[in-house]
């Protein structure tokens, strides 16, 4: 993170990229105040490169991945590269996203071209500076490892930088041929690891400022209920409690310490209005979603005559799925420090969406943007949850009220109870195959809340609702995809891989049921339906070969596979599974994955780590995770009632990178969707079980035997 003073110091020696509608333009420091660059780089006299990164580091390695792109083009030693989190502001907006935001597996995809240009331009300016200094033609000089040399003399970049930054920025700097890359495609040590290992890394919950107090918020037991009245008389008698007052989300308790704030909240008595959801327990939600599935929705895709083919086909399959609400379960719950005064507002938070944090701070305080500073700390996990900045809004509200810097902390229970879940959904699938086992018609209808509408971007057809289905690559002549919007006041948000998490499960398990009905091998059937998509076929062929498809499993008793395209990347996975029929316990022994993100893999180890992480998170959701509701609200409030996959339960994972031609795809999310359907497919082929609900708990699986 970087504060305003350090920002100005770095900025005065910096270089930036200014994005324009038709591309981008590099700027030197003197142009900055007028044209506003989106990313800064500077080199100190002792030859350290500092980069301001406009993306959030939440464990995915984005600081490393983005910085190495600049360092490679610049020919700079990795050990002398430093990164800082860029402050929030329009100058740092990712123009392709329209916001300063980290999500959608886009960071490297969106910044790759710009960062290469930045590094190449800096090197060009340094060479020009040395050429002038030594009166030697630029093409006789060599830039390498942070130094410029003519074969005899040698100057560090840091010694040349102050003069170089005053030169005109080159319009078309020469970019490296990929064969010249030093770091890209090979990798470097993670730049955030030393701080994290040594305990120096500052997460949102670690921030401390002078005269800071603490706050917690008492929230309603069920969504939609409001504060009717409250009694704080006992709370205010406690030592350390400073103030109690209502905020938009409930009742805030402020105190000198976090422990005092929690104790004060325990004494607080709040009467709530009735929630419109009272009575909606698990059973009622299940029935409600099924009823919604009977309603007509919006048609997202329509090819041929699916109903006609379904009516006339001799072999038909129909399945009904209901999948649960999921909690993000970040390691670090929400936390934010806000300091609001009459003429300024400062925010420190672990956020994925700086633009949205700036917006809510502006709305609450009424201050202009140039009086608001938002700084991003390290994130203890994000998974989409921390792109929702309602916790920043609460902290700013509280600080504005008491006129002191405040650290608002969510306990685990607060975090789980506040909602913003991966949406629950119900899906009806119908399919028909011909006498050769070829899929000739697919009917897909889903009832699900509209995530994009909750994020303030409503549309007739919610993109997340039909993601991975409406745009699937399978060649099927007759297709119907329909979306029914569910309008319950249970907050939903982007969960890692978003709509692909549930749509991949329903589609990929359904394809295996059709393959089974048509007596087809599921790998062969997919390859046939993807015959016009070489990259998709390739990942399936690679994963089948690496996993030993068609042979006896090495570890488990049954194999299952699934394929999915999301966030620009193709992924196929094969799992090896065994089942204890006495207990219903599913054990996943091995996951083999093939992924194609395109021709450029910036950091292979980071890619593999991200895929391993996605597989474990997807497997956790598949086997264990579900937000449960009583008639009075969510009941899964901590890890005793919302269990996650443990390290001991994690399978052996193999990741194989397949390089394909075409645009660069994402990394963080595409590895998650295929694993749950692959496990369910293994249970189908190995044990004859059709999984229509998640998670695959021992109780549920045993009920299917």
Architecture blueprint of SSEs:
Layout: H1 4-11, E1 14-20, E2 23-28, H2 29-35, E3 40-43, E4 49-53, H3 62-74, E5 81-85, H4 107-134, E6 142-144, E7 147-149, E8 154-156, H5 157-164, H6 193-197, E9 213-218, E10 227-231, H7 233-237, E11 241-247, E12 250-255, H8 258-267, E13 269-272, H9 282-292, E14 298-303, H10 306-312, E15 315-323, E16 335-341, E17 344-349, H11 354-365, E18 372-376, H12 390-402, E19 406-409, H13 412-417, E20 425-433, E21 439-448, H14 451-454, E22 478-485, H15 500-517, H16 522-529, H17 534-547, E23 558-566, E24 569-580, E25 585-596, H18 604-623, E26 629-630, E27 633-634, E28 652-657, H19 675-687, H20 698-704
Parallel strand pairs: 4-5, 9-19, 17-18, 21-22, 25-28
Antiparallel strand pairs: 1-2, 1-3, 3-4, 6-7, 7-8, 9-12, 10-13, 11-12, 14-22, 15-20, 16-17, 16-19, 20-21, 23-24, 24-25, 26-27
Helix pairs in contact: 3-4, 4-5, 11-12, 15-19, 18-19
Q: How many β-strand runs?
A: 28
Q: Percent helix among the residues?
A: 25-40%
Question: Structural class, from secondary structure content?
Answer: alpha+beta
Radius of gyration: 27 Å
Task: Give your account of this protein's structure.
- This protein is of the alpha+beta class.
- It is built from 20 helices and 28 strands.
- The chain has a seven-stranded mixed beta sheet, with helices on both faces. The protein has a five-stranded mixed beta sheet with strand order 2-1-3-4-5.
- The model is unreliable at 18-24 and 33-38 (pLDDT under 50).
- Helix 3 runs parallel beside helix 4, helix 4 (107-134) packs across helix 5 (157-164) and helix 11 (354-365) packs parallel to helix 12 (390-402).
- The protein starts with a helix and ends with a helix.
- Helix content is 31%, strand content 24%.
């Amino acid at each position: 993170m970087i504060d305003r003073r350090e920002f100005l110091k770095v900025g005065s020696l910096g270089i930036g990229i200014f994005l324009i509608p038709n591309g981008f333009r590099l700027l030197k420091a003197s142009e900055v105040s007028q044209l506003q660059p989106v990313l800064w780089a500077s080199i100190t006299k002792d030859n350290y490169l500092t980069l301001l990164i406009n993306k959030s580091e939440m464990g995915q390695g984005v600081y490393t991945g983005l910085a190495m792109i600049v360092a490679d083009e610049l020919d700079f030693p990795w050990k002398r590269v430093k990164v800082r989190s860029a402050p929030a502001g329009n100058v740092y907006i990712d123009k392709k996203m329209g916001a300063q935001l980290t999500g959608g597996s886009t960071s490297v995809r969106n910044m790759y071209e710009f960062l290469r240009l930045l590094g190449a331009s800096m090197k060009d300016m340094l060479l020009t500076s040395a050429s002038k200094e030594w009166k030697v033609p630029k093409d006789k000089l060599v830039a390498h490892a942070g130094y410029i040399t003519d074969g005899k003399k040698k100057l560090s970049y840091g010694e040349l930088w102050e003069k170089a930054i005053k030169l005109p920025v080159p319009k078309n700097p020469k970019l490296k041929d990929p064969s010249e890359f030093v770091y890209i495609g090979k990798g470097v040590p993670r730049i955030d690891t030393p701080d994290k290992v040594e305990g120096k890394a500052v997460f949102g919950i670690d921030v401390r400022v002078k005269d800071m107090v603490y706050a917690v918020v008492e929230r309603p037991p069920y969504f939609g209920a409001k504060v009717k009245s409250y009694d704080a008389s006992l709370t205010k008698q406690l030592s350390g409690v400073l103030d109690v007052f209502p905020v938009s989300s409930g009742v805030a308790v402020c105190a000198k310490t976090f422990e005092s704030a929690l104790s004060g909240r325990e004494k607080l008595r709040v009467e709530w209005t009735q929630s419109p959801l009272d009575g909606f327990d698990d059973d009622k939600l299940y029935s409600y979603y099924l009823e919604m599935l009977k309603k007509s929705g919006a048609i997202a895709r329509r090819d041929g005559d699916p109903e006609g083919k379904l009516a006339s086909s001799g072999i038909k399959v129909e399945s009904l799925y209901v999948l649960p609400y999921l909690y993000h379960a970040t390691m670090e719950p929400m936390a934010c420090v806000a300091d609001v005064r009459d003429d300024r507002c400062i925010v420190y938070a672990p956020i994925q969406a700086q633009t949205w944090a700036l917006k809510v701070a502006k709305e609450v305080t009424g201050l202009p943007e140039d009086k608001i500073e938002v700084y991003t700390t390290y994130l203890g996990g994000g998974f989409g949850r921390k792109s929702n900045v309602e916790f920043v809004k609460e902290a700013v509200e509280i600080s504005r009220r008491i006129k002191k810097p405040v650290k608002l902390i969510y306990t685990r229970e607060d975090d789980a109870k506040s909602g913003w879940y991966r949406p629950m959904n119900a899906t009806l699938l119908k399919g028909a195959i011909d006498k050769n086992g070829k899929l000739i018609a697919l009917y897909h209808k889903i009832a699900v809340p509209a995530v994009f509408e909750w994020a303030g971007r409503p549309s007739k057809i919610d993109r997340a609702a039909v993601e991975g289905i409406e745009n699937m690559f399978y060649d099927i002549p007759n297709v119907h995809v329909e979306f029914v919007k569910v309008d319950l006041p249970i907050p939903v948000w982007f969960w890692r891989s978003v709509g692909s998490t549930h749509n991949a499960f329903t589609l990929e398990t359904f394809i295996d049921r059709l393959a089974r009905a048509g007596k087809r091998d599921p790998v062969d059937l997919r390859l046939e339906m993807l015959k016009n998509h070489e990259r998709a076929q390739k990942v399936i062929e690679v994963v089948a070969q690496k996993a030993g498809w068609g042979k006896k499993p090495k570890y488990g008793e049954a194999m299952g596979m699934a394929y999915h395209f999301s966030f620009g990347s193709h992924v196929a996975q094969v799992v090896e599974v065994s089942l204890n029929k006495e207990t219903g316990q599913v054990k996943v022994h091995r996951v083999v994955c093939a992924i194609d993100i395109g021709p450029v893999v910036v950091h292979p180890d980071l890619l593999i780590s991200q895929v391993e992480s996605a597989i474990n998170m997807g497997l956790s959701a598949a086997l264990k995770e579900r937000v449960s509701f009583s008639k009075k609200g969510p009941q899964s409030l901590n890890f005793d009632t919302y269990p996650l996959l443990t390290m001991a339960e994690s399978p052996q994972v193999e990741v194989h990178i397949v390089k394909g031609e075409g645009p660069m795809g994402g990394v963080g999310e595409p590895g998650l969707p295929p694993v749950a359907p692959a496990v369910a497919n293994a249970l189908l082929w190995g044990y004859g079980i059709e999984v229509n609900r998640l998670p695959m708990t021992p109780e549920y699986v045993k009920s299917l035997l």
